[in-house]
Design a protein that fits this description.
The chain has 164 residues and is of the alpha/beta class. 29% of the residues lie in helices and 20% in strands. The protein is built from 5 helices and 4 strands. α1 runs parallel beside α2. The longest helix is centred in the middle third of the chain and has 16 residues.
């Protein structure tokens, strides 16, 4: 596998390995990092890929915002009929996954080789350009008036022609 010493993105480096995409996360994955990573990770999980592997080997810290990012990536990969596997060799991160009851969901593996068993190698791919954040369920952009990305329609009885 080819690794580039200079990361194209401060927290994320992605490359192809056969028919799958490997996404390495680097450094402290907290709320600030999650906000910086989400658009790039969304770009990797929005297209149909048979397998996406998220590698936490180079992560030095992971909090609940990072767990939310992982859950979002998994949801998006599954929506595209793909599979997401997690490489997580660190005891602290494994403990956090266990406490959040996500070990059965992610079934973390210790190495990329274990996660990509049976897949061939191929040259790296560049990170896709950053996309505006979406709500994670659809491709609608989050607007400042949408608290959780859902569009708000008129309230009950609105537009029925009834006057008060």
């Amino acid at each position: 596998m080819l690794h580039n010493s200079a990361l194209p993105h401060q927290y994320l480096y992605a490359y192809r390995s056969g028919e799958c995409t490997i996404v390495e996360l680097h450094g402290e994955i907290d709320l600030a990092a999650t906000l910086a990573i989400v658009a790039c990770l969304d770009a990797h999980t929005c297209r149909a890929e048979p397998l996406i592997v998220i590698d936490l080997t180079y992560v030095t810290f992971l909090d609940c915002a990072g767990l939310g990012l992982l859950c979002r990536a998994r949801r998006r990969a599954i929506a595209e009929h793909g599979e997401l596997r997690l490489v997580c060799p660190h005891p602290q991160a494994l403990r956090l996954l266990h406490l959040a009851r996500l070990t059965a969901t992610f079934r973390p593996m210790r190495t990329i080789a274990e996660a990509t068993q049976g897949w061939c190698t191929a040259p790296p791919i560049p990170n896709p350009p950053a996309q505006p954040p979406t709500d994670g369920r659809t491709d609608r952009l989050i607007k400042s008036g949408d608290r959780d990305g859902r569009r708000r329609g008129p309230g009950p009885g609105a537009g029925t022609g009834a006057s008060g």
